[in-house]
Automatic annotation (TrEMBL), chain B:
PROSITE patterns: ABC_TRANSPORTER_1, ABC_TRANSPORTER_2. It comes from Pseudoalteromonas haloplanktis (Alteromonas haloplanktis). Residues 2-236 form the ABC transporter domain. InterPro entries: AAA+_ATPase, ABC_transporter-like_ATP-bd, ABC_transporter-like_CS, ABC_transpr_LolD-like, MacB-like_ATP-bd, P-loop_NTPase. It comes from the Bacteria. Gene3D superfamilies: P-loop containing nucleotide triphosphate hydrolases. This is ABC transporter ATP-binding protein.
Length: 401, 236
């Protein structure tokens, strides 16, 4: 039997504890729903497909200090040496490592500069015809570079004239025609599109266009270069540990740094986001626990304050279940008021975050889910103390003055 | 209507065992008004609590209206308390956060009585105890005597056939005490059976039947009792 009206009146007459609890529930709901949304956003960002077999690939950086070799020629030799090593599937020189957070980008346009025309922000890699195989990328259409299209030079006047781009970039620049065979312009350099990659990420997962990527068959290194090697998952660690020796064996006036797996490079780049996500998870866990404890404690306090009243109610004919119901209903009422306030606060907080931190709008499902969770949790927190209250002996009514 | 045969109550604490009641025997007929007296600690409250099913007894048999109380479960005892028994406490035991109306409503809600019937009964009971104009007041806004009258109204609202009062005037001055006593006598005339524990010999004398509890047992009072009962019957 529910006694909503008298419980409500009784609450109104001693409301400080109830109001504190109500505010706590409101704050919890507002923060948890927003934090949960941000966490979910981060999780889907952190776990998105990159298009690369990350655990089969590692990269390293080479810096030459001897001046008895030409770097572009040495790197050609290195590529050949690397490909010949046991267990190596393929290896390639590439201007930067994908997913690593460092790279080059520019606007690719459908018209040569300075003519105006549709353009799209694009990350590009200088590499050669082994890049597709080494990075494990699949073509949607077209073909790989020919050996003859790959320019290896130290002459800045020489230029590449073909490119392979991702489907996403193709769709952005040529939304209603087939991009294959068309020409795009990097500044005034014309590049004919010979192949289209299904999917690949550039150096920056957080970029506004993380999927706009172009490969250009052009190797014109300075004194430093970057290599990636693809091998078997099981062989990778072993191979990476010997790579320095192998490189120095063929030419030793140089240093090899940053030998690391592609997944490691990605994790490094995402470390801040991972940390933030973990902190948010800890925050909302603590918040929910504190709220649950608050409800638990307040109910215990209310019970000890009302021992005589509970005994009297029992004497007047309340069954144990009626006492339990009393506390559940009382809590549900505080909780409902807190949730109404909390939903409003969650919406306001969501708007604030949207304005100041460019976070997407908080979907109502997150608020509803959080509210339901808080409600169930508060009933669970109150149930134990309420059962204890129901076990208060009715003889308290005559035994305590 | 109330029969206690060889009721014993043993309180067991870490240090001591207390025989609060020992082979306690008592028969109470419908419509009686009984005053219970006795020294402090003799077991009066224990007796009243057992009579009102507020606590279990250790051995013996207790029949209320022919129901064997020892065989009832907790819910059934709560229901019997709610339907047959009205309680009046020394400390009034009004619920501080509820106004007078809501206080009297408490046992009626437990019985599941409809709102308009509750309203009718509450107003009638408040009228009877002379506090009809105070329905919206909180207990703390009333004097002790007024609070006890509200508590009596609460006990009456369920129309119990059996009223148990533990020192109902213990916290009141003698004028207030007499008013409360008059109210109880009125209720008794209307048909309720009343058992009242009191330390006040003057009030006890006003009750048609007196029993004395000494050391957990009824003092031998048979002759006196018989005389009282006769007087009582003659007086009706
Ligand atoms: N919960 C309990 N645990 C242990 N002993 C108890 C308990 N309640 C009562 N007693 C003991 O039982 C005995 C009878 O107590 P009871 O309260 O019935 O006396 P009383 O006649 O009502 O006394 P008073 O006139 O002072 O109210 C006392 O010795 C008391 O100490
Ligand atoms: Mg007593």
């Amino acid at each position: 039997m529910l006694e909503i009206k008298p419980i409500f009146h009784a609450l109104c007459r001693s409301k400080i504890g109830a109001i504190l609890l109500l505010l706590q529930i409101a704050i919890t709901t507002a923060i948890v729903s927003n934090a949960a949304f941000i966490i979910e956003d981060k999780v889907s960002y952190l776990s998105q497909e990159t298009g690369y077999p990350e655990d089969e690939i590692f990269s390293f950086h080479v810096m030459l200090f001897g001046n008895d070799v030409e770097s572009h020629q040495q790197f050609e030799l290195d590529e050949t040496m690397l490909r010949g090593l046991p267990n190596v599937i393929d290896a390639v020189y590439i201007s930067n490592t994908p997913l690593s957070g460092s790279g080059s980008s520019s606007d690719f346009s459908i018209n040569p500069a300075p003519e105006p025309g549709l353009s799209a922000r694009t990350a590009y890699f200088f590499t050669d015809d082994h890049a597709l195989n080494t990075l494990g990328l699949e073509l949607a259409s077209g073909r790989n570079f020919n050996e003859s299209e790959v320019i290896v030079t130290d002459n800045n006047e020489q230029r590449a004239n073909v490119t392979i781009i991702t489907q996403t970039l193709a769709d952005e620049l040529f939304s209603d025609t087939d991009a294959l065979g068309k020409t795009v312009y990097l500044g005034d350099i014309a590049l004919k599109i010979v192949g289209i990659i299904k999917k690949a990420k550039g150096p920056w997962m957080k970029d506004s266009r993380p999927d706009n990527v172009a490969l250009i068959p052009y190797i014109n290194p300075n004194i430093s270069g970057n290599f990636i090697v693809r091998t078997d998952v099981k062989q990778r660690a072993q191979l990476a540990s010997t790579i320095e020796d192998e490189m120095l064996k063929s030419y030793d006036k140089r240093v090899i740094i940053r030998v690391r797996g592609l997944d490691e490079a990605k994790e490094n780049y995402m470390a801040q986001d991972t940390l933030m996500m973990r902190m948010l998870i800890v925050l909302i866990t603590i918040l929910v626990l504190v709220t649950a404890l608050g409800i638990f404690g307040l109910t215990l306090f209310n019970i000890s304050k009302r021992t005589k009243q509970i005994g009297t109610r029992r004497a007047l004919g309340a069954r144990k279940s009626a006492i339990i119901n009393y506390f559940l209903v009382e809590n549900a009422m505080i909780c409902t008021a807190g949730l109404i306030l909390g939903v409003i606060a969650a919406l306001l907080l969501g708007q604030l975050l949207m304005q100041h931190f460019s976070i997407a709008a908080l979907p109502p499902s997150y608020i509803a889910g959080t509210a339901l969770m808080v409600f169930v949790m508060s009933l669970l927190a109150v149930f134990g103390p309420a059962k204890r209250a129901a076990n208060i002996s009715p003889s308290i009514a005559t035994r305590s003055i | 209507m109330l029969k206690m045969n060889n009721i014993s109550k043993l309180y067991q604490t870490e240090m001591v065992q207390t025989h609060a009641l020992r082979d306690f025997n008592l028969h109470v007929e419908e419509g009686e008004f009984i005053a219970v007296t006795g020294p402090s600690g003799s077991g009066k409250t224990t007796f009243l609590n057992i009579a009102g099913m507020l606590e279990p007894f250790s051995s013996g048999q207790y029949l209320l209206d022919g129901i064997d109380v020892g065989k009832l479960n907790d819910n059934q005892r709560a229901d019997v308390r709610n339907q047959k028994i009205g309680f009046i406490f020394q400390g009034f035991n009004l619920i501080p956060d509820l106004n007078l109306y809501e206080n009297i409503e408490v046992p009626l809600r437990y019985r599941g009585i409809k709102a308009n019937e509750r309203k009718r009964r509450i107003e009638q009971c408040l009228e009877q105890v002379g506090l009809a104009s105070r329905a919206k007041h909180l207990p703390q806004q009333l004097s002790g005597g007024q609070q006890q009258r509200v508590a009596i109204a609460r006990a009456l609202a369920g129309k119990p056939r059996f009223l148990l009062a533990d020192e109902p005037t213990g916290n009141l001055d003698s004028l207030m005490a007499r008013q409360v006593m008059e109210l109880l006598e009125q209720i008794n005339r209307d048909g309720a059976t009343i058992i009242m524990v009191t330390h006040d010999p003057e009030l006890a004398r006003r009750a048609p039947r007196n029993i004395q509890v000494v050391d957990g047992q009824l003092a031998d009072f048979t002759l006196y009792q018989g005389a009282q009962t006769l007087k009582n019957v003659a007086g009706v």
